[in-house]
């Protein structure tokens, strides 16, 4: 039955209050205003109208059927002649959005427009209202100095309606501000890209010509300055200035030829490095930067060049060598054309003297393993010597990785130190504000050294380094964080390659500290750190890597790795029990020689015992441990995750970032180390022997290393290496974490870098870079 009697309904305003739902979040309804004296307003269910449009000229006698919103089942009739106004739900939502824009409530208006686009995309007036919303929001962002946001809004408006009134001047003004900001921070590439985009939209826009003339003038001034620097003999400074000119305006006719001429006469390469060092040439067992730089400054008598099926492969950098295992002899034929800065040639006598000095226990260069192996040295002629060994050794050349240079003609046989002459392809040429310079040596014995200069620019994080590489500001990155590898590969002309061997990441204990000296506590850390999760989630960021995995010991997976030693799982409950036991043992000073290296230990200052040992109700609070790490982003991220894991066990961790000088005087309990175990036969005694951080930690380890040094064949050497692995794992002499494949990145236009180098500069003599302009950068 249809009723003609109607109820009066009071309608609330369409905009929501803080307590009420917003209009588009309510049940849809329409609103009818009658012509009676009270101007009655009816809130009704959405009207059944053709295409949901109000007729333009309805006949006054026609009736409209409605259902009040609160009387869903009852239907009423209203004649069109009694209706003063109808507001449809869609239009009320749109009107509310427009009102919010007028009020400057752009974030709130966005939700209304998003609703309309999703539910009523073809509603009349919606497109025009959205256009106005984008324009007004952009103007608001510009007033707040948020020009990037304003540009994004205007760009969207251009894509919707390129002829919107006022769009061109607004877009030009916004781009002008952004171009000015980017030029101020020397991001000329982005500035030129913006100008090009504006020109494509509005070819006659005067702002484009104005800025292009300004940039071209600045580039010309830089080019003239570069020519003056070149004429004055400042080669590197001239090229840097010319490159700066090219980055500003690469279309400048003169700059391309100038850069080509300069690169041909004085090529240099800028390398982004993630760590620096104050110990150039040091043999620090976990110093990434020293290992990187060593190949620039000196050449060893022998050098590791790669890997074979049985460990490292070595070459003689100053000649050729012939191993004669049957006769226990090593013959070295020196190159006859080698000359040092003094003009002296390297002779067999020089090398023989060096090998004998290294076997003399009274000398600072004494090497016990070499002394035990060396029998005698004889000189056949000026450039040939024979080295006789007391027994066979699988890698005698691996003990001779040090530099050998001619001795001073006036030096006596008792001189204990090598002369100051460097024999590497480069010499240090200063350091200024995070930039280190290495200039090619004019007397390098191997001839051409590749680029005339290597410029190392310190970039602490991989992300900005990758951006700098993509823009052409640098040519190489020495180390890319694993979580940034895929991002780097998406940026041509960037090429990402792995190094020859992964590094072993572990926690090395300071055995002078009571808790670190506790085998029980070290085992607690092994069980208490979720190593698999940290590696996969925090470091690899979900990427797959066949060379990166959690390990059980000190060696990378390979010939020295004992696969029978299982990786200890993550068991926090067991870790907590072990840590508590270790704490009580240290507090009560009851550690035994067999369990704790060094015997009884002093209790840490912050350890407190509140009851009887073993009384769970009064167990001592766990002490804070100090975890030191190098100033590298991989170490920071890994140590942060380790701290979070141990915090769950009640073990507080204080992170200590070491200075670049690698000052060992810094107090810590554990050191997060990245060990380069490139050839375990050589590196195991060097890192874990009498001069390493585990010196005196275990007599079993010392014995195994002694037997390794005396191994005469691969079978015996491998058995000793497996035993070293087992001892270190059983006694938890280090806290093994994972092996991680390290990667470097370079510009594809840099040739000669070589596949899978051991260190970055392994093939630096062959580096060649094609001259190019920054415009070529992505």
Question: Layout of helices and strands, plus pairs?
Answer:
Elements (H helix, E strand, L loop, with lengths): L1 E2 L26 E5 L6 E4 L18 E4 L8 E5 L3 E5 L1 H14 L3 H14 L6 H18 L3 H14 L6 H18 L3 H14 L4 H26 L3 H14 L4 H13 L2 E6 L14 H10 L4 E7 L2 E6 L2 E6 L4 E6 L13 H10 L10 H6 E8 L2 E6 L36 E7 L2 E6 L12 E6 L3 H9 L5 E5 L4 H5 L4 E5 L4 E7 L4 H4 L1 H10 L2 H9 L9 E2 L21 H17 L36 E5 L3 H15 L5 E5 L12 E6 L4 H9 L10 H11 L4 H17 L4 E6 L2 E5 L2 E2 L16 E2 L9
Parallel strand pairs: 1-5, 7-16, 7-17, 21-22, 21-23
Antiparallel strand pairs: 2-3, 2-6, 4-5, 8-9, 10-11, 11-13, 12-13, 14-15, 15-16, 17-25, 18-25, 19-23, 19-24, 20-24, 26-27
Helix pairs in contact: 1-2, 1-3, 2-3, 3-4, 4-5, 5-6, 6-7, 7-8, 7-9, 8-9, 16-18, 17-19, 20-21, 21-22
Question: Whole-number radius of gyration?
Answer: 38 Å
Q: Please count the helical segments.
A: 22
Which architecture name of the largest domain does CATH use? Roll
The largest beta-sheet arranges its strands as 14-15-16-7-17-25-18
- Examine the coordinates and then state which fold CATH places here, giving the name of the CATH topology of the largest domain: Dipeptide-binding Protein, domain 3
Q: Kindly name the structural category.
A: alpha+beta
Mean pLDDT: 86
Q: What is the count of distinct domains?
A: 5
Can you tell me the residue ranges where pLDDT is under 50 for at least 5 consecutive residues? 1-18, 409-420, 590-620
Query: Largest sheet, if any?
Result: 7 strands, mixed
CATH superfamily of the largest domain: Dipeptide-binding Protein, Domain 3
CATH class of the largest domain: Alpha Beta
Give the distance, in angstroms, between the N- and C-terminal Cα atoms.
Answer: 73 Å
**Strand content of the residues, in percent?**
15-25%
Q: Write down the overall geometry.
A: elongated
Number of strand segments = 27
């Amino acid at each position: 039955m249809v009723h003609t009697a109607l109820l009066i309904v009071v309608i609330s305003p369409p905009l929501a209050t803080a307590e009420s739902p917003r209009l588009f979040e309510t049940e849809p309804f329409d609103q009818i205003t009658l012509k009676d004296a009270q101007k009655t307003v009816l809130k009704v269910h959405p009207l059944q109208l053709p295409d949901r449009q109000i007729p333009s000229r309805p006949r006054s006698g026609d009736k409209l059927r409605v259902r009040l919103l609160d009387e869903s089942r009852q239907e009423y009739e209203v004649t069109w002649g009694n209706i003063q106004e109808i507001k449809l739900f869609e239009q009320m939502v749109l009107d509310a959005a427009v009102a919010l824009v007028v009020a400057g409530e752009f974030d709130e208006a966005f939700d209304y427009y998003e609703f309309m686009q999703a539910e009523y995309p073809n509603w009349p007036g919606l497109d025009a209202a959205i256009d106005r919303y984008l324009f007004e929001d952009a103007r608001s962002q510009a007033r707040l100095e948020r020009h990037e946001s304003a540009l994004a809004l205007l760009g969207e408006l251009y894509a919707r309606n390129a002829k919107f009134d006022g769009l061109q001047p607004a877009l030009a003004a916004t781009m002008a501000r952004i171009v000015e900001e980017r030029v101020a921070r020397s991001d000329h590439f982005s500035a030129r890209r913006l100008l090009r985009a504006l020109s494509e939209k509005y070819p006659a826009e005067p702002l484009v010509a104005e800025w292009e003339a300004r940039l071209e003038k600045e580039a010309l001034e830089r080019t003239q300055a570069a020519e003056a620097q070149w004429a004055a003999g400042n080669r590197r400074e001239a090229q840097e200035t010319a490159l700066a000119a090219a980055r500003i305006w690469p279309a400048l006719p003169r700059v391309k030829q100038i850069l080509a001429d300069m690169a041909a006469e004085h090529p240099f390469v800028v390398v982004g490095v993630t760590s620096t060092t104050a110990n150039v040439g040091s043999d620090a067992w976990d110093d990434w930067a020293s290992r990187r730089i060593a190949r620039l400054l000196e050449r060893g008598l022998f050098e590791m060049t790669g890997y074979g099926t049985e460990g490292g492969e070595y070459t003689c950098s100053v000649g050729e060598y012939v191993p004669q295992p049957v006769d226990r002899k090593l013959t070295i034929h020196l190159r006859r054309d080698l000359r040092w800065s003094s003009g002296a040639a390297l002779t067999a006598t020089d090398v023989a003297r060096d090998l004998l000095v290294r076997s003399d226990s009274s000398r600072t260069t004494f090497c016990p393993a070499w002394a035990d192996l060396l029998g005698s040295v004889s000189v056949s002629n000026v450039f040939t010597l024979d080295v006789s060994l007391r027994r066979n050794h699988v890698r005698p050349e691996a003990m001779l990785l040090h530099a050998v240079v001619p001795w001073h003609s006036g030096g006596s046989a008792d001189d204990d130190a090598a002369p100051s002459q460097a024999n590497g392809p480069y010499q240090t040429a200063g350091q200024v504000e995070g930039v280190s310079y290495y200039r090619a040596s004019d007397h390098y014995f191997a001839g051409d050294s590749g680029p005339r200069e290597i410029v190392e620019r310190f970039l602490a994080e991989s992300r900005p380094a990758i951006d700098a590489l993509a823009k052409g500001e640098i040519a190489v990155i020495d180390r890319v964080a694993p979580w940034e590898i895929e991002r780097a590969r998406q940026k041509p002309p960037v090429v990402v390659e792995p190094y020859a061997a992964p590094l072993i990441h572990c926690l090395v204990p300071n055995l002078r500290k009571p808790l670190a000296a506790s085998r029980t506590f070290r085992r607690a850390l092994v069980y208490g750190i979720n190593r698999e999760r940290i590696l996969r989630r925090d470091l690899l960021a979900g990427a797959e890597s066949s060379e990166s995995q959690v390990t059980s010991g000190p060696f990378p997976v390979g010939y020295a790795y004992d696969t029978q030693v299982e990786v200890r799982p993550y068991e926090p409950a067991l870790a907590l029990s072990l840590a508590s036991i270790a704490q009580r043992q240290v507090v009560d000073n009851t550690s035994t020689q067999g369990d704790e290296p060094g015997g009884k230990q002093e209790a840490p200052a912050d350890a407190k015992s509140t009851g009887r040992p073993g009384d769970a109700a009064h167990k001592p609070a766990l002490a804070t441990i100090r975890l030191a790490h190098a100033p590298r982003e991989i170490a920071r991220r890994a140590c942060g995750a380790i701290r979070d894991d141990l915090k769950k066990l009640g073990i507080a961790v204080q992170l200590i970032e070491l200075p670049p000088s690698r000052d060992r005087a810094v107090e810590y309990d554990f050191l997060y180390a990245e060990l380069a175990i490139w050839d375990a036969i050589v590196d195991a005694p060097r890192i874990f022997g009498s001069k390493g951080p585990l010196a005196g930690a275990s007599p079993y380890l010392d014995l195994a290393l002694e037997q390794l040094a005396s191994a005469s064949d691969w079978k015996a050497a491998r058995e000793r290496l497996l035993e070293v692995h087992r001892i270190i794992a059983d006694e938890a002499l280090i806290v093994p974490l994972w092996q991680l494949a390290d990667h470097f990145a370079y510009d594809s236009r840099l040739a000669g870098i070589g596949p899978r180098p051991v260190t970055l500069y392994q093939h630096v003599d062959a580096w060649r870079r094609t001259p190019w302009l920054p415009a070529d950068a992505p």
